[in-house]
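ok trying again, last paste got cut off:
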Amino acid sequence: MSVWSELRVSWQAFKTRRKMNRQFGRREDPFSYATTPYEAARLDAMDAALGPGRLEEVLEVGCAEGHFTERLTRRARRVTALDISTVALARALKRAPGAVFVAADLMTWAPRPEAAYDAIVLGDVLYYLDRPGVGAEFAALFPRLASWLKPGGRLLLAHGFSSDKELAHRRSFRERFEAAALRLVSETIPDADRGGVRCLLSTLEKI
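nice, full thing came through this time. structure:
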């Protein structure tokens, strides 16, 4: 990245971190992961999309307070979970102490050199990164993430939407990963909503 690119990305990360720390600082579970049928259906669908059997290594991006991370630790030998909010991560560590938690911005973070993931999970995170001023950096994220998967590894995208325009935007994330040589396995919208918000769940695979 150039100096100007690093400054733009850092500024966006600062704003997002401040927003999410403020959100999680108001109360525990501000997005009602533990209490709404919508979130229960979303997490169940994500779990099923990982496929049967035990996984070796998983990366979760946007782990929040660790509600899905807790499930992942029962399915994988090693779970690395990222979030930009340190407030959320402090709670996630208590919920899923078996995971490795990292406070980081996905736009600049990279795994350890030898890492290769059986699955990468991105839940309600990409639209926070898709911002004016960092378009080139955001576009570079898709092939970079795809390169972290093992052959046969799965990428899960779970993003909420409340309009046709937002649905098209969420589908554009999946299309960018297809352009990065991942194959679409399935795409569903679980049968639950929360105040008009539904979830688009896309599952892709590295060939």
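cool. The chain has seven helices and seven strands. The first helix runs from residue 3 to 26.
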